[in-house]
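Example record

The entry below shows one chain as it appears in the dataset: sequence first, then structure tokens.
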Amino acid sequence: MDLIEIYIDENYNERLDSFLTKKLNTMSRNYISKLIKDGSVTINGEKSKPRYLVKEGDLIKVKLPRIRELKISAENIPINIIYEDRDILIVNKPQGIVTHPAPGNTTGTLANGLIYYDKSISEVGDASRPGIVHRLDKNTSGLLIIARNQESYEALVEDFKNRRIKRMYMALVYGRFSLKQGTINAPIGRHPVDRKRMAVVYENSKEAITDYKVLEEFKDYSLLEIH
């Protein structure tokens, strides 16, 4: 079992099932409700109910079954293919779709649609995330490179590992910047309390360097290009 701990440092006044659905955004609300009812979720050491209102000072613990190797079924899911050849696909993943199966999301993912489009991808790379060499969060849209054979899979994994492939993101963030372009250099690792979140930490962390450029400013927000 994997254990996730979330410490509540402000008063959300939100149902437990709704709160966890947002925090653990690869899992459906129905799946999270089942975990709560099965006793796999505790509040301050006690079992709870989906309707419990989360409050400041609560310590939530979620026990998740480890993901076993999944048999992914092919599903006729529309895929926006930007480019393809015999080795790779480049697809535009929309917001709201999970990249590959996870607890509570074993169907309806991009991976299910990929093996419907090209059955041979099911034999490439990891069985639970066939052909996938990098991912985007459920609520993030953007381009993904998909390997169509083992040779291209291994080459792409190596390219990402050695940073030969450059990633660029656009993000709308709260606030405005005094510098219109700059670099943020701060180590990143698991949040010491909320293990599903990443944070700036100085122990058991990885180097994280982010270059940003302000593309457009609004009253309270900034549109950034991030590398």
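Notes for this example: The chain has three domains: 2-64, 81-161, 169-226. The first helix runs from residue 16 to 23.
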